[in-house]
Design a protein that fits this description.
Order of helices and strands: EEEHEEHEHHHHHEHEHEEHH
Bound molecules: adenosine-5'-diphosphate, magnesium ion
Number of strands: 10
CATH topology of the largest domain: Rossmann fold
CATH superfamily of the largest domain: P-loop containing nucleotide triphosphate hydrolases
Structural class: alpha/beta
Radius of gyration: 17 Å
Length: about 240
């Protein structure tokens, strides 16, 4: 079953159109990858899914329900949760306060203790550092916290916007291990990445976006073999 489906989406900012007829689906329990270079429209795609911007044309279906015009809070209440680009933590708040803030919807509050146990199991360091201010943590720990905060929102689909960006290689490996663990747990994930190699290794299905258009899609193994990917993204 498709948890999420974008049907022929046009969207943009002010007068300038960024997305052109985007079709994209995410199957339940899969990791779906959205690749593309800087400025391709990946973050804009995620913003139309969370409702930060509204589509000019086309429809967004979540569990077969047309949510195109739903406000952001209602989509979060439904379980559409984003780990934003650049983490967006509050430097003067503690780890635990972030986890509380992540569980701001009613559905998430009802599952608070189960989800807290899960994130502490996934990231034991966050339990140890529960009272530490986020601004004093390393980049890798901050990324873990950003993911943990999103999980506290009890996602039915987790949108991750370049979670490995700006992290040291060893931490990037940890981030992808986390994504694999979430997938094993049955989490449905839409992952935006510029790390093409790692992204394709964890994903089931991939889309490639250029200038706001999907130019290639397929199972990850097929996309890794595509000439476009080899030339433009993998440099082989
Ligand atoms: N808030 C905004 N206002 C106006 N233009 C924007 C805004 N955010 C992004 N854009 C433009 O939209 C295009 C796609 O950006 P974005 O979706 O952030 O790309 P990506 O995430 O793939 O790097 C770019 O040309 C960018 O300059
Ligand atoms: Mg982006």
């Amino acid at each position: 079953m498709d948890v999420l489906r974008l049907d022929n989406i046009d969207a943009g900012y002010g007068e300038s159109q960024v997305l052109w007829g985007v079709n994209l689906s995410v199957r339940e329990g899969s990791v779906t990858l959205l690749l593309g270079s800087n400025g391709a429209g990946k973050t804009t795609t995620l913003r139309t899914i969370t409702g930060i911007i509204k589509p000019w044309k086309g429809h967004i279906y979540f569990m077969d329900k047309d949510i195109s015009m739903y406000p952001t809070y209602r989509r979060a209440e439904d379980g559409i949760i984003m780990v934003p680009e650049g983490r967006r933590l509050w430097p003067d708040m503690t780890v635990y306060e972030h986890l509380e803030m992540g569980a701001y919807t009613k559905r998430a509050r009802d599952k608070f203790s189960d989800n807290l146990e899960f994130v502490y199991q996934l990231f034991p360091v966050l339990k140890v550092r529960r009272d530490q201010l986020a601004g004093t943590m390393s980049g890798g720990e901050q990324q873990m916290l950003a993911i943990a905060r999103a999980i506290m929102g009890d996602p039915k689909i987790l949108l991750m916007d370049e979670p490995s960006l700006g992290l040291a290689p060893s931490i990037v490996i940890q981030v992808f291990e986390t994504i694999s663990q979430l997938k094993e747990r049955g989490m449905t994930i839409l992952l935006v990445e510029q790390n093409v190699h790692m992204g394709l290794s964890v994903a089931d299905y991939a889309y490639v976006m250029e200038n706001g258009r999907i130019v290639l899609e397929g199972p990850s193994e097929e996309v890794s073999e595509a000439e476009l990917i080899k030339k433009s993204y993998l440099g082989i």
